[in-house]
Design a protein that fits this description.
It contains 11 helices and 10 strands. With 382 residues, the chain is an alpha/beta fold. The N terminus is likely disordered. Keywords: Acyltransferase, Amino-acid biosynthesis, Cytoplasm, Methionine biosynthesis, Transferase.
Length: 382
């Protein structure tokens, strides 16, 4: 019997980072051509941030909203996949005409975080001497990233955001914005994030970083110019598999997959269960659109997160916030449990009760339960 062979799946590039010469898509760039001092010491000699905008800035600049992405997100918050944008918008149902962040009313700005890999300066970027940063990219904290974003706001002429919103890692930066620059945020939406990274979160993240650095193709972080298939894909894939389990809930995984095998595969003969195939799928997608060095840099920045550091502790830091604030967590979140959001809601003078997003999806509920998030946005901006 004649069979038609399946075309071979192309090997992934060494890094899934956006590079010069790739389609820009909707990206714009802010360039800082002077050094940025870093909290851990040293400096970045220069930097740029990729960002996207929707809507039109009002003449009095009063309608600007800052939306901050999570670990593997980017500036493409809304809109289809296409040239320059490998995935559709990660909060697509929230932004646009008639939506909670109505772009006929609001000017929405979403930067790719400093240290990122989708157009902003990070490990995959070129240094001033023309070589890639790679493993020599400096340690960043959330405060460094917010300092870079404050420069973007200055360049856009935005003295005060009508709203700063983010979830998970984006919520950490939103919190830092409100603490570091209390006069520059009128309203604040914090979703599924803590005042400081906890021991268990640092532990999970540390295992993920170890998986990447243990990959023989890591090469100390200097792998970006290797050939296809020669990047630390196994390590990054393992990190993604582990992270994704923490992003979802046990009841959801049980209800979706249970103990079922994947198709005709036999787990007793080297085959996979459905849940393992699901994790393989997410790992394979990430290695084609993300960068292992960025994953390490941003994970370490998340582990550094502590709003109270050098500010007299968490309680003192939270008292600095003047923005009208809503804090929400996901009832099934096992990565950033509700107790951490309860601490924020209790400690921020301008917050009221903790809001709870009901979802079976775990931590990812802040991305999936768009209607519930939209209601919170409308409450703050109504």
């Amino acid at each position: 019997m004649n069979t038609v062979p399946h075309p071979a799946v192309p090997l992934p590039p060494a890094s899934g980072a956006w590079r010069e010469g790739d389609p820009a898509g909707r990206r714009q760039w802010y360039v800082r051509d002077r050094p940025l001092p870093l909290e851990a010491g040293g400096e970045l000699p220069s930097l740029r941030l990729a960002f996207e905008t929707w809507g039109r800035l009002a003449p009095d600049r009063s309608n600007a909203v800052l939306v901050l992405h999570a670990l593997t997100g980017d500036s493409h918050v809304t809109g289809p996949a296409g040239p320059g944008h490998p995935t559709p918008g990660w909060w697509d149902g929230l932004i646009g005409p008639g939506r909670a962040l109505d772009t006929d009313r609001w000017f929405v700005v979403a930067p790719n975080v400093l240290g990122g890999c989708q157009g902003s300066t990070g490990p995959s970027s070129l240094r001033p001497d023309g070589r890639r940063w790679g493993g020599s990219f400096p340690f960043l904290t959330q405060r460094d990233q917010v300092a870079a974003e404050a420069g973007l706001a200055d360049a856009l002429g935005i003295d005060r955001w009508a709203l700063v919103a983010g979830g998970s890692m984006g919520g950490m930066r939103a919190l830092e914005w409100a603490v570091s620059h209390p006069d520059r945020a009128e309203a604040l939406l914090l979703l599924a994030c803590p005042a400081a990274a906890g021991a268990e979160q640092i532990a999970w993240a540390g295992i993920q970083v170890h998986a990447i650095r243990s990959d023989p193709h890591w090469r100390g972080g200097d792998y970006h110019d290797a050939g296809p298939g020669q990047g630390p894909h196994n390590g990054l894939g393992l990190a993604r598999r582990l992270a994704h389990v923490t992003y979802r809930s046990e009841p959801e995984l049980q209800a979706r997959f249970g103990r079922a095998p994947q198709g005709t595969e036999d787990p007793w003969a080297g085959g996979r269960h459905q849940v393992a195939s699901y994790l393989d799928h997410h790992a394979a997608k990430l290695v084609r659109r993300f960068d292992a060095g960025t994953y390490v840099v941003l994970t370490q920045a998340m582990n550094s997160h502590d709003a109270g550091r050098a500010r007299g502790g968490t309680a003192a830091a939270l008292r600095r916030i003047t923005a009208r604030t809503l804090v929400a967590g996901v009832d099934s979140d096992r990565l950033y449990p509700l107790a951490q959001q309860a601490e924020l809601a209790a400690g921020i003078p301008t917050a009221d009760r903790l809001r709870v997003i009901g979802s079976p999806h775990g931590h990812d509920g802040f991305l999936i339960e768009t209607d519930q998030v939209a209601a919170l946005v409308r409450e703050l901006t109504g």
